[in-house]
């Protein structure tokens, strides 16, 4: 029969001999009549802990939720100290969003500066200023439209902004350069703005539309990847749309005025002619360099580019054959495996996880002994590896015995398995270590 009580389990016979010797379970083990609680233990930086996972839902902001959690922790800390209980956080995923946001801002500033410098060298500073202004205008327009599209500021949307950053001013550059060429011919600035924008309107509009259409299939994808692909497509399409509107309507209006002469007259009115000469000295120096630079570019075009272009046009079939051969070689490299294709290349992570899985049925104490050994090694790494200012490279350590996956932000983990455990620790950011 089956045993249900402690007495029945203790009476189970393990060994029975002919001489009457009988060995029961009570002789070799202690039977406890109670609930079978699956053992589990977690430690944060060597201290026993209880884990509480906080997730965002729907369109909630990860950064805002992280700030609210940290505020609650700061308010609760004095109250918990009376019970000798500390509160801390582990695996703040909002840092990733903040890092992408900082990357976007840095990339935007760098792009604006580079575009301004190059356009100022090849065309003129006022044109460069108005073209660069199209970057924040297009981005602000997309940010204003995001609530209506159901898109939040997250890792995927920030990646989309970074992706489109390199092409957002292409249409403005084409229109601005054409307006500048009309004004160089002596045409009235207002007429030049209208005619210059109209002359390239069709190629500019269709150039932007083709780029937008390339992302449309991502809106109708299926599966798990469709969720983030759709966000990327929406951001890219909206940013390019606002960029097209700005370059066709706002940019020509700005370029139709004599901004440089108006600014000089205003500066002279407030400071006087002598002060104006002093204040505009850097601009005059830049314009002298600008004229010299353009002369060098025109000379390079006449002596280098023009002969090569003439030869390519004269031997057009040979030119086409060379590029077709290069294309065939590239396709052959990919098809033959010489050029390895890795859709998602491995990226160095700041988090290291060591998982231990022993044979099923291994006692909790045995698993704990091995996990403790792994944790002691990580603690030794924390003491040994430090930066120049003495800060340890290992920042946080989370240990779990009887479960795995608790350190992951995507999983609630598993508990109650005495044969598994893990040690996870965070390293200092790559740029700091």
Describe this structure in words.
A hairpin with a 5-residue loop joins strand 1 and strand 2 (22-24). The protein has a 5-stranded antiparallel beta sheet, with helices on one face. A two-stranded antiparallel sheet has the order 1-2. The model has no long low-confidence stretch (mean pLDDT 84). The protein is of the alpha+beta class. The chain has 4 domains: 1-34, no CATH class; 52-89, no CATH class; 95-294, Multidrug efflux transporter AcrB transmembrane domain (Multidrug efflux transporter AcrB transmembrane fold, Up-down Bundle); 351-427. The protein has helices at 6-10, 25-28, 62-81, 94-122, 125-132, 134-149, 155-164, 170-184, 189-199, 201-215, 225-255, 259-271, 273-279, 281-314, 316-335, 364-384; strands at 13-16, 22-24, 41-44, 47-48, 351-357, 394-401, 403-404, 414-415, 420-427. The protein contains 16 helices and 9 strands.
Secondary-structure topology with pairs:
Elements: H1 6-10, E1 13-16, E2 22-24, H2 25-28, E3 41-44, E4 47-48, H3 62-81, H4 94-122, H5 125-132, H6 134-149, H7 155-164, H8 170-184, H9 189-199, H10 201-215, H11 225-255, H12 259-271, H13 273-279, H14 281-314, H15 316-335, E5 351-357, H16 364-384, E6 394-401, E7 403-404, E8 414-415, E9 420-427
Antiparallel strand pairs: 1-2, 3-4, 3-6, 5-9, 6-9, 7-8
């Amino acid at each position: 029969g089956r045993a249900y009580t402690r007495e029945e389990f203790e009476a189970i016979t393990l060994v029975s001999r002919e001489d009457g010797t009988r060995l029961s379970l009570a002789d070799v083990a202690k039977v406890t009549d109670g609930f079978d609680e699956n053992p589990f233990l977690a430690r944060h930086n060597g201290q026993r802990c209880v884990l509480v996972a906080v997730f965002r839902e729907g369109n909630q902001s990860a950064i805002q939720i992280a700030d609210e959690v940290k505020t609650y922790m700061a308010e609760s800390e004095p109250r918990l100290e009376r019970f000798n209980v500390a509160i801390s956080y582990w695996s703040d995923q909002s840092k990733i969003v903040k890092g992408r946001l900082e990357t976007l801002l840095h990339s935007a500033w760098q792009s604006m500066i580079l575009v301004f410098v190059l356009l100022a060298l090849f065309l003129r500073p006022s044109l460069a200023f108005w073209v660069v202004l199209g970057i924040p205008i297009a981005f602000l327009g997309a940010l204003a439209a995001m609530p209506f599209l159901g898109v939040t500021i997250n890792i995927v949307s920030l990646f989309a902004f970074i992706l489109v950053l390199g092409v957002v001013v292409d249409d403005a550059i084409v229109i601005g350069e054409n307006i500048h060429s009309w004004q160089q011919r002596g045409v009235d600035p207002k007429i030049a703005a209208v005619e210059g924008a109209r002359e390239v309107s069709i190629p500019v509009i269709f150039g932007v539309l083709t780029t937008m259409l390339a992302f449309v299939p991502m809106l109708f994808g299926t599966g798990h990847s469709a969720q983030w692909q759709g966000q990327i497509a929406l951001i890219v399409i909206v940013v390019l749309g606002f960029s097209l509107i700005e370059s066709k309507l706002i940019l020509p209006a700005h370029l139709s005025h004599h901004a440089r002469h108006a600014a000089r007259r205003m500066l002279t009115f407030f400071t006087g002619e002598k002060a104006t000469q002093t204040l505009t000295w850097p601009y005059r120096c830049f314009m002298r360099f600008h004229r010299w630079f353009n002369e060098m570019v025109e000379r390079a075009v006449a002596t280098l580019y023009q002969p090569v272009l003439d030869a390519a046009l004269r031997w057009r079939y040979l030119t086409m054959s060379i590029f077709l051969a290069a294309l065939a070689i590239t396709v052959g490299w990919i098809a033959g495996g010489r050029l390895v294709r890795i859709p998602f290349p491995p990226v160095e992570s700041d988090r290291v996880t060591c998982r231990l899985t022993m044979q099923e049925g291994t006692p909790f104490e045995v698993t704990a002994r091995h996990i403790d050994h792994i944790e002691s090694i990580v603690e030794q790494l924390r003491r040994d590896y430090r930066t120049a200012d003495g800060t340890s490279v290992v920042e946080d350590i989370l240990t779990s015995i009887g479960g795995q996956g608790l350190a992951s932000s995507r999983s609630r983990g598993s508990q109650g398995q005495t044969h598994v455990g893990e040690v996870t620790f965070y390293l200092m950011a790559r740029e700091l270590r």
